[in-house]
Amino acid sequence: MRRPGGDRGQVSIEFLGMTPLIILTLVLMWQAVLVGYTFTLAGNAADEGVRAGTAAAPGGARQAACSAAGMKHLSAAWRGDAVVTCNPSGYVTADVYLKVPVLFPGVFSFPATVHGHAGAVEEVKR
Hints:
Blueprint lengths: L9 H46 L4 H13 L3 H4 L3 E5 L3 E11 L7 E13 L5
Antiparallel strand pairs: 1-2, 2-3
């Protein structure tokens, strides 16, 4: 004996059951994109800092130029917790530490940091 209507509406019920899993998957994918983008920003900021540090005059000006260039291309969401350190003697290095935002940049961040590092030989001007 068959029920009237059969399996009518079954797809709607299954979709409603799967909706939380679909949303969770999208949220996790977005968070993975933010982690990757933070790594990219940290590496780029370190590269920019080293580039400016090797071109500046030795001493305190080099340290300031390196730090300023490292922060220049970071948006406000990543700049707030960013730390840029430079070693301006001989082989110039820059280390950038950024916090990974949670879902929305600029609101909350994970306590762990992402590290970007770059180095270049000091330019000699004659």
